[in-house]
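Ticket 4471: requesting a sanity check on a complex prediction with pyridoxal-5'-phosphate. Repro inputs:
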Amino acid sequence: MPIKFKSYLQAKAGYKGGKSKPTVPDGKKIYKLSSNENMLGSSPKAIAAIQAQLSNLSEYPDHNDERFRLALQEFYGGLLRANQFITTNSGVANIELILRGFLEEGTECIFSNPAFGPYRGFPKKMGATSIDVPLIGDTFQLDVNGILNAVNKKTRLVFVTNPNNPTGTHLPKAHIDALVNGLPDHVVLIYDEVYYQYVQARDYVRALPYVLAGKNVIGINSFSKAYGLAGLRVGYSYSTPRIAEYLQQLRIPFMIDSLSMTGAIAALKDTEFIQQTVQLIHKEKAYLYAAFDQMGVKYWKTQANFILIKPLIDSKEFEALALEEGIMVRPADNFGAPGCVRVTIGTRAANDAFINAWKKILSAG
Ligand SMILES: Cc1ncc(COP(=O)(O)O)c(C=O)c1O
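Returned structure tokens:
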């Protein structure tokens, strides 16, 4: 008898992340503005804690994540209890764990293009179907009625990313309220807020108030962005005790390695580093807006640490030409934003290098 492969795992549903630096030509200064990393590096508190932990690598890490969940409880000022967190080795692993918990063959989930790749691709790995209810208008707003109309008995999850990747735009509280209140009880809202630290919009809302109100909402977070720990691979989510305790069963023992857990717990206390990071992003995004306006570049105002732009040439060609100038950017076509490119907001030196590269590409074209 032949091996029984799952039919839905035959199709490619993987998420291909951004290119790493070593894959680009050697010998020149490269600014990696393609993966929304922290241009200031990593939380110094996390690095110090990791260094102190290095001599202990012969020992297994904590068997479970209780220490981490207690640190998160403290970070949330006791508003959320330790049993409301699900910690994983990365934000994407958290998304995958949640999908494993709720999806199976014949079920459906709803996402809104342009969207972060895993929300479109990962459900297929569980045999589920992803329904796209695209964001609407040039401001990429949520089609709340479209989503509510697309919900049926098979729907298990709805995905919302706020601020959104790759657009950088945010969804106002009023729309999230309407969505949360309109969803039937059998549907869980996955609310991705991994860029929340950067938000300036006053009508922004996190997942927290909905979770506190007992709604079926899960807030997704990552240490890869503002904490500058993308290489560690740590993420967490929070929800109602009922949902979180259900999902915690899917964690494996020793899931988060000792360096990562120690680093993440220390990072939670590094408010100074978060402040510096956020200040840099706010200052530099204003600097980039001014330069873009002067050059007549089409871009979208952002609430995150990256900007979506629309070059006049093909996005892949722009990516290649920018790389020749030492700048890595990310074409957003695969995220559902055809012809657009996503660029991380960097330090002044990186942003100037990007502006100069753009001018060079423009003048050559
Ligand atoms: C919207 C969004 N969610 C989740 C993640 C996951 O981040 P990580 O897996 O690095 O924790 C990312 C990373 O780019 C993201 O942009």
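Notes from triage: Residues 20 and 32 are 8 Å apart (CA to CA). Leaving this open until the requester confirms.
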